[in-house]
Design goal:
binds adenosine-5'-diphosphate, 4-stranded parallel beta sheet, alpha+beta, Rossmann fold, binds magnesium ion
């Protein structure tokens, strides 16, 4: 497929904030003799001529990168976000390794689709209801609220714990983007409250950490501390099943343990940062990611 397109031996890192991750990826891929270029999906463009559709990526002078590592997809209007994902889909159609793929990112950015896939596989994830604020609340949810069952409201496209709040009454509060995503509240011991983040790479749970906070929203961005945690078989298997359910190259899986000791999948992050996780281990996480990325690149390049 790529024969008609000029190729550049360098790899594009899609990011708007290269920082530590950009430097770590540059170093880790240099160990594989691969040079990286940090670019924003905001600055890419299509030039679509019959028989020769091109994805224009800054710094590549009309050529295609050898592969793409997706570290960030910037938000924007629906049209802007769809276009940014289109670039990822197009690059994949051109036979280029995209790590994670646009489809996998779509499935995980959207908490409803992630929850649907987890539930479809029969995995332990809290009961969830998603509906348009302009529409009708599902009857079962109304009954749950009337019975005083605590719930958690999350923005459909949320991250870093922003906008995550507890709902204890029939007044479910404002819907971000016109959509309500409400989930059974998993009661955990605390304070301090904890959850577990597992990084799964190429289907294998590789690293885990515990996030500990005075607040039950235990994101690092909300002030949680990251502590080393040994990966157990139980947690590893659950995280691996979660990533298989969304079919993704690498992902950060959030797991919560209830007061009875049961584990629940909170969400799957398709664009996980790993700086915090790196602080809890002496293993080189970026090297592990780079290795899986290179395996995907080579597999696609091998006829
Ligand atoms: N169903 C739930 N019950 C209790 N706490 C939850 C639940 N879902 C999420 N949380 C807490 O809120 C945090 C953020 O939720 P999460 O679904 O991971 O969204 P985000 O994408 O913002 O990280 C989790 O790390 C966890 O501490
Ligand atoms: Mg999370």
């Amino acid at each position: 497929m790529t024969g008609r397109w000029r190729r550049d031996p360098r790899v594009a890192i899609f990011t708007d904030d290269p920082g530590w991750h950009g430097r770590a990826l540059r170093r880790a891929l240099a160990a594989h003799a691969i040079e990286t270029v940090n670019v924003s999906l905001k600055d890419c463009a299509f030039a679509l001529a019959t028989g020769a559709p091109a994805v224009l990526i800054p710094g590549f002078d009309g050529a295609l990168p050898r592969a793409c590592f997706v570290r960030g997809v910037p938000g924007g209007s629906l049209e802007e976000v769809v276009l940014r994902l289109d670039f990822l889909h197009a690059l994949e159609l051109l036979g280029i390794a995209v790590f994670n793929t646009g489809r996998a990112i779509e499935r995980t950015v959207d908490k409803a689709m992630t929850s649907f896939r987890l539930a479809l596989r029969g995995l332990a994830t809290p009961a969830t209801w998603v509906y348009a604020a302009s529409g009708t609340m599902p009857l079962e949810l109304a009954a749950r609220l009337a019975a005083g069952r605590p719930l958690v409201a999350k923005p459909l496209f949320g991250s870093q714990g922003e906008g995550v709040r507890r709902v204890d009454s029939a007044a479910v509060g404002d819907a971000v983007g016109g959509v309500h995503y409400l989930q059974d509240f998993v009661a955990r011991d605390g304070p301090p409250f904890r959850d577990v983040r597992v990084l799964v790479i190429a289907g294998r749970a590789r690293y885990a950490m515990e996030r500990v906070s005075a607040h039950w929203v235990t994101n690092r961005a909300q002030g949680a501390r990251c502590l080393a945690l040994e990966l157990t078989a139980e947690i590893g298997a659950l995280a691996e099943a979660a990533t298989a359910a969304v079919d993704i190259d690498y992902a950060g899986v959030d797991l919560m343990q209830d007061r009875d000791g049961g584990w629940w999948i909170g969400e799957v992050n398709g664009i996980p940062a790993w700086w915090g996780l790196q602080q809890t281990t002496s293993d080189d996480i970026t090297a592990a990611l780079a290795e899986a990325f290179v395996v995907k690149i080579v597999a696609l390049e091998t006829p």
